[in-house]
Design goal:
Layout lengths: L1 H20 L5 H7 L25 H14 L10 E3 L11 E7 L3 H7 L12 H15 L3 E7 L2 H11 L2 E7 L16 E7 L3 E13 L2 E14 L5 E8 L7 H23 L12 E6 L7 H7 L5 E3 L16 E5 L2 E5 L2 E6 L3 E7 L4 H4 L16 E7 L4
GO biological process, one term: circadian rhythm
Subcellular location: Cytoplasm
Main location: cytoplasm
Length: 391
């Protein structure tokens, strides 16, 4: 009874917060009031497919998605994406972990500095984009969620996701370009969320990345979690490296610094008497690296002693090639279609089971991203992993 009352109170507070910071009439009000109709504090189950109509989902979760679509009104169809099964071996039963990586596009940059010349201004308004962003996250319901270019953390994403059972951490950039935009909502940064029903927090650090020992404007969040079911630890990290051509050496230096921090944190917990051996602590490293696969920073991660591999290579026929694009946009400087975003994982302890595919050029449309159908210029990456059985 106590937990039922507590859950109801938390959901009611969540609805109040969201309606206060994200006012929108009609469907939006019903969307978030739907959360109060459940008395269970347990987070909603992982979808068996990316389709909201999956009958294995909690009815309240399905209602939430339906109301989200209603709040968006008469909009263009969502990008239809499906999961590709890539697992060719046996994982540990009940060890599935869904990880989502996404540069959601900072609102101040989308409406200001990024200059998406083919995107209608109405499609860039926060009153629309916030619901498209939320809908994307709800559709795939990750256990671990890594985001970049977050400039509405405290007023939108944190309270909304807290109401859905997530705990989060946010690290803003020291000199965010969002602050140069009139009417901005503060600095953008990286955010890392995890499903509290599945994981407990052991440690979390916000890192200002360095290049050649000089502090930079790029940051990372590194979190150590323990699975409540299995007791196994996982290290999760999210970052957003320096953008633009000509800065390849800089990204490489940032990547080296990032890898050093990761290795130190894993070693710290492996050295704890109650901790696991270092080789048994798998890593998920997500981010917008602003680097194509031929760059030095990519090679640094592939050859790292941490034993990392890139999950999205599994979509290719040979398992060795990254997707053709994870971002596709048209700015005043021209069209950009390339791969910049990655989910890295420990290949000795983790197995990739399913990978969310990329929409086709036809689905994306001639005006590219963002659009009325999709709120960001970067596509979300979603993977299902399982722990490899110990030999």
């Amino acid at each position: 009874l106590f937990f039922s009352i507590l859950a109801h109170t938390q959901l009611t507070m969540f609805v109040f917060i969201f309606q206060s910071v994200c006012p929108m009439g009609g469907g939006a009000t019903r969307l978030y009031s739907a959360l109060t109709q459940t008395s269970s504090s347990s987070p909603l189950p992982l979808p068996a497919s990316p389709q909201p109509a999956d009958t294995t989902l909690d009815p309240a979760f399905l209602e939430l998605l339906r109301q989200c679509e209603e709040a968006l009104g008469d909009r263009a169809p969502r990008l239809h994406r499906t999961f590709t099964h890539v697992n060719d071996g046996d994982g540990v039963p009940s060890s599935s972990v869904r990880v989502m990586q996404w540069n959601i596009l900072a609102q101040a940059l989308g409406e200001g500095l990024d200059s998406f010349v083919q995107c209608p201004p109405e499609a860039l308004s926060w009153s629309r984009r916030k619901y498209l962003i939320l809908e994307e996250i709800l559709t795939y319901r990750p256990h671990i969620l890594c985001l970049q270019e977050v400039d509405h953390y405290y007023d939108t994403l944190q309270p909304v996701l807290a109401g859905l059972g997530y705990s989060g951490n946010f690290c803003p950039k020291p000199w965010s370009p969002c602050l140069e935009v009139e009417g901005n909502n503060g600095p953008d940064g990286c955010a890392l969320f995890f499903d509290q029903s599945r994981y407990e927090l052991l440690d979390s650090v916000n890192i200002r990345l360095s290049a050649m020992r000089i502090p930079t404007n790029q940051i990372a969040v590194v979190t150590m979690l323990r699975c409540r079911r299995s007791g196994r630890c996982v290290c999760v990290a999210v970052t957003h490296l320096k953008a633009r051509s000509g800065w390849e050496w800089f990204r490489s230096a940032q990547g080296s610094d990032f890898l050093r921090h990761l290795q130190n944190l894993v070693q710290k917990h492996a050295g704890d008497p109650a901790g696991a051996p270092m080789s048994d602590i798998p890593l998920f490293i997500c981010g917008d690296f602003n680097a194509v696969p031929t760059e030095e920073v990519y090679r640094r991660f592939i050859t790292s002693p941490l034993g990392l591999d890139s999950a999205y290579k599994k979509l290719s026929q040979d398992g060795l090639t990254e997707p053709e694009y994870t971002t596709w946009k048209i700015r005043s400087t021209g069209e950009c279609c390339t791969t910049l975003d990655y989910i890295w994982y420990s290949q000795d302890t983790l197995r990739v089971d399913r990978v969310l595919d990329m929409p086709t050029e036809e689905q994306i449309g001639p005006n590219r991203l963002p659009s009325f159908s999709y709120p960001s210029d970067h596509l979300s990456l979603v993977c299902d992993f399982s722990f490899k059985a110990k030999e």
